[in-house]
Amino acid sequence: MLITRRSALLSAATVTTLGASRPARAAETMKIGVVSPLTGPVAEAGRIQLNSLRLAVDKVNAAGGALGQQIELIVEDDASSNPGAVLAFSRLAERKEIVGFIGSIRSTQMNAMAPDMLKVGKPVMFGGTDPTLTKLGNPWLFRCRPNDSYSGRVIVTFITESMKLKKVALIHSTDAFGTGGKNAILANLEKKGLQPVLIQGYTNNQPDFSPVVLAVKQSGADVIVSYFTNEPDCAVFARQLRQLGVRTPWVGSPSIQSPVTRGLAKNALYGTYAVADFVEDSNPTAKTFADAYRAAHKESPDSGWTYDALIILAKGINDAKSTDPQKIRTAILSIKKFSGTEGEYNFDQFGDGLHGYNIVINNNDKIDYKEHIEFTD
Amino acid sequence: MSDFFQLIFQGLGIGAIYALVSLGFVLLIRAASVVNFGQGEFSMLGAYLLVVFFNILGLNYFFGIGLSVIIMAGFGLIFAYATYWPLRFRGGLPVIISTIGASIFLQNMVLWLYGPSTVPIDGLFDSDGFQIGEVFISSQYLAIIVIAAALVLLQYLIFEKTLLGKKLQATSQDKEMASLLGIPVVIMIMITFAYSAALGGLAGILVAPILFVSVGMAGIITLKAFAANIIGGYGSIPGAILGGLALGVAETLGANYISVPYKDAFAFLMLLAFLMVRPQGLFGEKISEKA
What we know:
The complex is a heterodimer. Chain A is α/β, with parallel strands linked by helices. Chain A has helices spanning 5-28, 43-62, 82-93, 107-120, 148-162, 176-191, 210-219, 231-243, 259-265, 284-297, 305-320, 325-333, and strands spanning 30-36, 71-77, 98-102, 124-126, 141-143, 168-173, 198-202, 223-227, 250-252, 273-276, 338-340, 343-345, 356-363, 366-374.
């Protein structure tokens, strides 16, 4: 390449401008704090969350950013633990220039950070699905995934109205997640005047599920509903169910369609249904996001809530025309009929954005969208 | 009735897994008077080695198993050198604690090298199993039962019918006396560690297609195997086998006829009952402290 005096001068000028503009630009960005698992057992989920967030940042910034400023993420690692999350949030809380936060997908971490979030008094978008989180009297929590009270309701609606089945065998882990799920199913069945023909709890990490499978067989159930916490448990149960010749239709909590469970159980899960919050074929926004994600990262995303969270937060700031937390809160709560990757957001007074789930079916290891069940009450 | 036989078969299958892991315990107890709490990690490592050889490097399945077992035997020597050797004159307890430490170290090392994800692995046979009447016989469980039985026989023959076995037993009973009789005590103990690690690795490989391969895969199985060892008779080979099988059948039947969530509790209730009523176990001898 021929270096002329002109081009040399030009590049020198560019370098100077870049160098000079950097501190100025940094001061002008709109800062969003992110608590994410960068290390520890769920670091894989953290990586996908951050990738999605960066896609959302690019989208918002390309459209002009928030209040004319470019959005910048300030990320702190929660080390996949509650103490780590509390520490990460306190580091972010010290930075006064941060206008809002993206919290955790884990309810237990959200519970741990919630008191500090209340003290800081700025909007936090999060993904944990424990229904009580938005009922703590903490006005700063905004949920971008459907909470667990909807999963039980959607499962019961699907089996009674779409499948027209009534004899339920309910299999659940005896931990907090599984018991919560069991209670939600029981409450919703009761509303329809139904009782399960079998309620079977199990403790996590079982090497053998044959007693549970035989109990299902003996119960005469026409549909299995399950809340499995650990993926290997779900896979062991699925395989033994098929080996012992049980072909009863099965509708499960989200873990039965996760890539890990499908990888372990393989064909034993073919034909099963699951509730799922993110399904790329469920709406055009999800499809566009998934295509953009694949183009950038050569893999499919398994969740889109952080993408929605950032876009909604930016929309809140823009709608409020201010970085005043109270005004942003009012703006987020008035977001209705907003199309996100996880569904249509209609924020209620508690800060829950979504009120329904998708039902998916495992067609030979391909997760196909079946239907979306939405509630307005 | 077919359900009852199904439960018995499943119970025997799970019980054979406990028995295999328990055998590893018994060996070290008999030959070196050591309770090795890293026994479960031997199983986990064996399964991970097969994942590396078969899933990742694409070697022949059975060649992969052979290679894994041989490497595990070598690893047993390293394990002995690290956990047993420096503490060999300090009595049993420091060695037990050192094996617990080694087990935590090994779990974290695998977590660091391989990550937390659970991996599926193929079984010994292409077919899942077959039906006899209404009872489904899982081929992998059947293989575990058969291999466990074969290993018990082999172990019995080694200990009772060979000079090597006699030397190993002598070493276990009184190291000083054995050494005075010209038995190379150090070599005997090293052989035991190597065999025990190879056995543990094989148990892990056999269980992996059923339970999948993960860092914590051996956790509850190791505890149950230890319980089986006490129920059967501390340090007794037939006891380890029968204790394992009895435990597997009892908890499977208990889960089905009494309560699934309390399934794990049955094993430990059985253990408590034996400790109170028959502390020497099914086949144990009443051993008094040597003067």
